[in-house]
Amino acid sequence: MSTSPRVWFITGCSSGFGHALAEAALLAGDHVIATARRVADLEMLEHIGAGRCHILPLDVTDAGQVAQQVAAAQAVWGRLDVVVNNAGYGLLGAVEECSEEDIRRNFETNFFGALNVIRAALPILRHQKQGHIINISAAAAISNYAGFGIYGAAKAALESLSESLRLEVAAYGIKVTLVQPGPFRTRFIGKGMTHATATETYAGSSGKFAAYLEKVDGKQPGDPERAAALIVKMVQEGQAPLRLPLGKYAVKKVRDVTASRLRELEAWEQAAGETDG
User: Fold this and answer.
1) Active-site residue among 15, 137, 162, 206?
2) DSSP secondary structure string, 92-114?
3) Alpha-carbon gap, residue 172 to 128, rounded angstroms
4) CATH 3.40.50.720 fits 7-273, yes or no
5) CB 85 within 8 A of CB 114
6) With left for phi above 0 and alpha for psi between -120 and 50, is residue 63 left, alpha or beta?
7) What's the pLDDT tens digit per position in 215-246?
8) Separation between Cα atoms, residue 146 and residue 142, nearest integer Å
9) Is position 202 annotated as part of the catalytic site?
10) DSSP string, 117-137
């Protein structure tokens, strides 16, 4: 395990996983480029870092700004070792309830924002012949819920992209990991969520899920600081699983979904195979 300080570039550090991860990396002795739309929210990290935290304003939906700030980030300590795509927010509402504007905006941040960062960072990582890209996904990408179709679709797109990316960049010493958090005590359900205009049509599906989220907010079992510590430990040990579910809920969800898909496959396996000509 290498003990040399790494340089982290993390998006969405104003709260939640981004803030916790930046803090954990700094406490581990690493260097952090912490980014957010509102840099005033990041002042505490500068105090923790004692010269090892550099703050940059960043709107991940602005590809031009992303390219400029990733280049500026590299210039601070001469390299980037870990690139974390954490910036994102939820969109709660049935597919029919969500406006086209809300749908496109959600994808712009959750998918295209991450893609902008990845594309800007890849030339740097390839030149270094090493690096670790960590994309924060969601339990909704393991299997989704009524009312989370758009958000889950954006995260599922990020997961598919990450699978291909991992194969494309392995030859350059670049690792790719998807983090799939279950329910954690962050501000995601509150400040991190946009709501479509609810209708009576979907009160029994999307509406129930919305009520459930409101009920459990602040009582989630997941501890963001523990999650951040595990991610830092994973990086320090040179580990790079393609998928890292976080929390017992996410782990169980993976097991249950896998078992369900296998049962469905077994039911249709023979008929599906007979379509080969």
Assistant:
1) 137
2) ES-TTTS-HHHHHHHHIIIIIIH
3) 8
4) yes
5) yes
6) alpha
7) 888 889 889 999 999 999 999 999 999 999 99
8) 14
9) no
10) HHHHHHHHHHHHT-EEEEEE-
* Location of structure tokens 């039911």: 267
> Given 151, 162, 206, 249, which residue is catalytic?
151
Residues 6 or more apart whose Cβ sits within 8 Å of residue 16: 86, 184, 186, 187, 188, 192, 224
Q: Is 51 left (phi over 0), alpha (psi -120 to 50) or beta?
A: left
Tell me whether residue 155 is one of the annotated catalytic residues: yes
Q: In sequence order, what are the residues at sequence separation of 6 or more whose Cβ sits closer than 8 angstroms to the Cβ of residue 121? A: 9, 70, 80, 83, 131, 133
Q: Which two tokens stand for residue 157?
A: 């797109």
The catalytically annotated residue of 14, 99, 143, 155 is 155
Span 58-114, pLDDT tens digits? 999 999 999 999 999 999 999 999 999 999 999 999 999 999 999 999 999 999 999
15 is known as an active-site residue? no
Global confidence as pTM: 0.96
